[in-house]
Design goal:
heterodimer; A: 371 residues; mainly alpha; Cytochrome Bc1 Complex, Chain C; 2 domains; two-stranded antiparallel ribbon; 6 strands; 66% helix; B: 413 residues; Butyryl-CoA Dehydrogenase, subunit A, domain 3; 23 helices; flat
Chain lengths: 371, 413
Amino acid sequence: MDGFQSGPIKNSYKWLDERLKINALIEYMGSKEVPRHSHSIFYYLGGITLFLFIVQVITGILLLMYYRPGADSAYESVKFIVSEVSFGWLIRSIHSWSANLMILAAFFHMFTVFFTRAYRKPRELTWYTGMGLLALSMTFGFSGYLLPWNELAFFATRVGTGMAGAIPVIGDFLMVIMRGGEEVTGATIGRFFGLHVAILPLLTTGLLTMHLIFVQRQGMSEPMHWAGKKREEKKFMKFFPNFLYRDALVWLVALNILALLAVIFPDGISVIHWPLGEKADPFAPPPPVIRPEWYFMFAFQALKMFPPHIWFIEGELFGIIIFGFGGLIWMLIPLLDRGASENKPSKLVMTFGAFVILFIVVMTIVGYLVE
Amino acid sequence: MIKIKFTLIFIGLLLFSINGFGSDNNCLNCHLDWESEEGSAAKYARDIHSQKGLGCTECHGGDPSLDDMDDVRNSKGYRGVPNHLEVPDFCARCHADAAYMHEHNPSLPVDQLAKYKTSVHGQRLFARKDKKVANCISCHSVHEIGTGQMPYSSTHPTNLPATCGECHADKEYMAEYDIPTDQLEKYRSSVHGQALLQRGDLGAPACNDCHGNHGAAPPGVASLAAVCGVCHALEAELFAISPHAEAYRENDFPMCETCHSNHDIIKPYDEMIGAVGSAVCTNCHSADDGTIGLSTADSILVSINNLVQAHAQAKRRLNEAIYKGMMTTDEEFLLKEVDQTLIQARTLVHSFNMDSVAPKARAGIAKADTIIANAAGLINEYYFRRKGLGVATLIITFLAIMLYRKIRKIESR
């Protein structure tokens, strides 16, 4: 604490330290180390995702001050936010950009963890909680998309919730629960709003806390090729202050990019866009192109490409089963990839990961091209 | 033996059923054989009478079950084919019979013959025995009659101008009547013709909307405003209380036609009113005619032009704001109100009164000014955002550089 040698800051710090043992915490952080190697940059992806999540929480709370859920008020309140409230347009724009960038960062984070096989023992629980956080983030996106109650959101939600109806046994029940009835109505906004601002934040806070505790307890995963190396042959940096300062620098860069995007493209750009447009009208004809958000596009497109029937099963249902099965394998990879904890290379796992990336990229591109 | 009896009875019933339930319309059987695929018998399937279940005998009489043509001609009730002069009465046997029509189409009027007799066509046919003049089948066709709603029908609005034009655009055919034959050509180039024939706007008038159909007659000077006023009600109403109404009546000027012409009505433009150039006002008025006609026309044109310019400027500024990605829904809505005000001001021209036009134009200009001011505010806000972004980016970049230097300092120890 070189900077706090005297004066009121020093006294305040001393006062806090006597009560909270801050020095002990700093000493602990100072003793922690982060591996330095050619892929160290991957360690910042989780931090970027966390930073964007914090931005989401702050801007979400600000939007909440003016947003009014309901078929008669949702669209009007969002319009009021972007046209009348000081900097309301900026808050909505940052919230939307940050949401998309957060999911992008989370995907990158997940794939880097997958390909470095950082999920191996003892970090299986970190992987599971991370997968849960990604699922929650995507549910955040899906539920938030409807809240402005505009034309595009209405029809996309109708298609999205309709797909849930194809899930075997519980599909219809799930669809009615999600919609608050047979159709997407004002009741659906109420449910999505409750989900978006109460249930999901609660679950995310719990899961995120666990995820961060696991990371802190176990430290950053060392690359597999370090196995068997002596400590002198490995490079490390201190977690505090070196890694935290570097993390802060990355956050500042992310903030700058976010500010540029939010001001220059307040309604998004190309396929990532959220213009307010017209208010949702359940009796209006659907727009010619109904698209889900980009991170659902690969699944949406793949489901569309299944034939109407495969054997005796409906194509859409078959697709959902395949996706469910694939997702389960992906989720349980720490259990299935037993060789990882023994530092054995696995072509099968790498090929599976490459196939999943290829599938997502190709299906997303095809999804936008065919429309 | 019993088996043979049953077999004979079965065959007998079969033959009876074939004869009994087969086609009993020998008219069609023969005419379809003799005529081409474009012949009357083939066309009849599309005819509204056929669709209503009426056969040949309902019009032509006779016994359709007979095989021999001569037997049919000699059979009871045979009426055969009417000549040109007989056609109206031939059709009116049913179409003027309210009780009969009620069974088939209760919504269809039964006064076609009565109206036809009042028409120029009917008068010439009945009084002068003119065989060239139009009767029912001239317009409705013979065996392919459709309602006005059927797209293939000769009386469907989009086909009607050509149907009338078959005679009225034929110089040779119309030579003896001494009336123009350029109506169809003019109509096709008119605002009405383009709307109906090119854009398929069924709200636009065809020939019958102005001239009537069964009681077809050219609208006279007195009835012209009423005819146009069926659609252009506000204009007709304003004209009726304008200073022009009395003057037109006194001078026997056809009301709308004097400025807008008849078959070749073009889309009105603002410079039609005024004191110079292509203004139609100068056709009757001059600067020294002792009226305030031209000065009023000039003032009205100035008012309208001011509103048009304000509208254009508002639209231009608003588009700038939209192009910059600003939220402009309220201003876009206001611009629609200015559009509406401009339409109303142009309609008010038919009052030929500055006290009506000027307040409306001023109201529109005020709204346009609000849009211009709001759009300017939005454009300023756009540049404010850009400057704000520049400042924020500089601050963040500065912090990032400072942090980077700090990291370098720590790591160089």
